[in-house]
């Protein structure tokens, strides 16, 4: 009797039966988001990929949108990072290439759609906005480090981020050609040169 109760209790806890099952389900959901975006996201596919019964997915996430939100946030954890090699030019070039690669995936298209007005669940839109905010925060941290090391003069990180990432979105979303490292080098070079040339001198 006591053992039966112990077995049932985890299933009734908010968050699911066990950390192991939840982790498998969330990993599968994240993979599907990365592969297909959130359109047509189905519990059946999540369960099959996770190797669990569909009822386990429903039990852990009765609300489909909550699972979508957690999957989006999990998948995006590493996408908002900006490396710090000590070379701001190189780090920003790599960042732009990562953005370009991400935009060409179903997940990237989901992010792009989220920027536009859309009839979407508010929780999903909030998660997508959070992902974009994380990217801005990562840029801010890297630029703050560059300023402290005198790699750059004091700079408005939001402005610089818009200047270097805008052309990436334009090229990729037009679908006219592949975004290359040469593109990234050129964009970062021009923007950083402009930032340095227009910095106020003491």
TrEMBL record:
One of its GO terms (molecular function) is transcription cis-regulatory region binding. Residues 19-79 form the HTH tetR-type domain. Keywords: DNA-binding, Transcription, Transcription regulation. The keyword Protein transport does not apply. Residues 42-61 bind DNA. SUPFAM superfamilies: Homeodomain-like, Tetracyclin repressor-like, C-terminal domain. Pfam families: TetR_C_11, TetR_N. This is Transcriptional regulator, TetR family.
